[in-house]
Design brief:
366 residues; 9-stranded mixed beta sheet; alpha/beta; TIM Barrel; 15 helices; 2 domains
């Protein structure tokens, strides 16, 4: 079985921390984008039957009901095991939920990021904790109980006290799935640029230090565990049985097809990436060109470790891989960052915090 990812890179506002190829775009471009997206979906040869669908962005919850239905109608395999839509709090209404259910959506991921008003205001988000609570209850009342809440550790002005307040809201709302991301500082977001340039906009001087961000992450791991929400991937936590079936395909190197701007696909041997910007994606469609920017062979050996070690379940190296990576595996076990349990290799608690350092070793060995 395969997964399907649909990219809708349009938002009502661009959040300061966002480093995705998404943002505020003219309505006219959105309309042309939907036409191009319909065409890409319609021309796809379905060699594998999908059992998961994921609409991401951007803010796909902005999609009009007719547009959403038209898109997902082209995907075979309904009713899918899991069909997720990302949503911005404040956009979930009874009519919207009804349209989602009619389209086959059975899971919603809410981009909460924080439950603290001053933190939300500095990032450009407009919702409140009470809005999130009402929308979670609305989803449950309409039969969508599989809800994910996104949180970010490291927002400007965030303290351990305010982080604890956000975690207390999670406990109150009792979702089956939570994602916890540590703030990424890079030049692809406005906040990241300000931090790198020692600027003052977007609250850049008030971004917590790395040590505090790590403490926040570890606090979340502990608190979520007490709630019965267990880490199954570095940034993802779920009650048993509520792990994201779609995202697990990425980490287990299973096939998926991506549609839209900056969407990625993997067929088991080749990785494909569409052009990044929505305007370029539309322009290619309008001149009859493929949206694909690149196609490269997958490196199964490297990816098995680079991607698979993100999972709490770890990886199961074969005999040749134990031999090839004998030195880094031995060094990381001695350093307390990897642990071996029979023929399974996984990150330790310490290894999770230094995961990029571990991953790098497995993609640099010839």
């Amino acid at each position: 079985m395969a997964g399907v990812y649909i990219s809708y890179p349009f938002c009502a506002q661009k959040c300061t921390y966002c480093n995705f190829a998404s943002g505020v775009q003219p309505r006219e471009l959105q309309e042309r984008y939907l036409q191009a997206l319909q065409a890409e979906l319609g021309s796809h040869e379905w060699k594998r039957m999908p059992d998961t669908v994921y609409l991401g962005g951007g803010t796909p919850s902005q999609l009009a009901p007719d547009a959403l239905r038209s898109l997902v109608a082209q995907i075979p395999g309904r009713s899918w095991l899991e069909a997720t839509i990302e949503a911005a709090p404040g956009t979930v209404t009874p009519d919207v939920v009804c349209a989602w259910i009619h389209a086959g959506i059975n899971r919603v991921s809410l981009g909460v990021q924080s439950f603290v008003p001053c933190e939300l205001a500095r990032t450009g988000r407009k919702h409140t904790a009470e809005v999130v609570a009402r929308e979670v209850e609305l989803l449950r009342s309409r039969g969508i109980s599989n809800v994910n809440l996104d949180l970010i550790a490291g927002l400007p002005g965030q303290t351990m006290e305010s982080w604890t307040e956000s975690l207390s809201w999670v406990a109150r709302l009792d979702p089956p799935h939570v994602s916890v991301y540590m703030l990424e500082v890079d030049e692809d977001s406005r906040l990241g640029q300000e931090v790198l340039l020692n600027g003052k906009r977007y609250g850049a001087p008030d971004v917590p230090g790395d040590a505090l961000i790590v403490d926040m992450y570890e606090k979340a791991v502990e608190e979520l565990r007490h709630m019965g929400i267990l880490r199954y991937e570095i940034s993802n936590f779920a009650r048993p049985g509520f792990e994201s079936s779609h995202n697990l395909k990425y980490w287990r190197l299973e096939p998926y097809a991506g549609f839209g701007a900056d969407a990625h696909s993997f067929d088991g041997s080749l990785r494909h990436q569409n052009v990044e910007q929505a305007s370029d994606y539309v322009a290619r469609w309008e001149r009859g060109a493929s949206p694909t920017l690149s196609s490269t062979p997958a490196n199964g050996a490297e990816e098995k470790f680079f991607v698979g070690l993100r999972l709490t379940e770890g990886v199961r190296p074969d005999a040749s891989e134990w031999k090839k990576y004998e030195k880094p595996i031995g060094d990381f076990i001695a350093g307390g960052m990897l642990a071996r349990d029979g023929d399974i290799l996984r990150l330790t608690e310490r290894g999770v915090l230094f995961s990029n350092e571990v991953f790098e070793e497995f993609i640099t060995i010839e």
